[in-house]
Amino acid sequence: MVFLDIFSQKPNYSNSYLICNTTSIKTKSFPSLKKIKIFIKNSEEFISLDGVAFDAWQLMGKKILFEDLIKKLKNIYDVPEEELKRDLIKFISSLEKNNLVKITKKKD
Fold first, then answer.
1. Residue 105 forms beta bridges with which residues?
2. Alpha-carbon separation of residue 77 from 58, 73, 74, 83, 94 (angstroms)
């Protein structure tokens, strides 16, 4: 018998559109520092994004496919694609849990 550990499964964002959910948050951007502070109204907490997270957030300001997000960030940062993809999945999953990003599957 094989047991499937559902908690170890990673979200699959392939063929998904991503867009920031700005309706439930307030942001303050510092473009020259490549930093953004986000105030989450529901939990009354601040989070701060910089570096790759800042650029990913900026790119998700308009609807973007996950694959296109990877390509654009890969052009900016010199990191292995698999590492970038793995880190972005963690980041987007965290945003999704906090209702900071909307994810919709691409319709063929």
1. 16
2. 15, 6, 5, 11, 21
pLDDT 10s digits, 8-34: 457 888 888 888 866 667 778 877 788
At 37-88, the pLDDT tens digits run 888 777 778 888 888 999 999 899 889 999 999 999 999 999 999 999 999 9
Please answer whether residues 59 and 69 qualify as being in contact, where contact means their C-beta atoms are separated by less than 8 angstroms. yes
Alpha carbon distance 63, 17 (integer Å): 6
Q: What structural domains does the chain harbor?
A: 12-105 (3.90.930)
Is residue 37 within 8 Å of residue 27, measured between CB atoms? yes
Q: Which two tokens stand for residue 37?
A: 């502070």
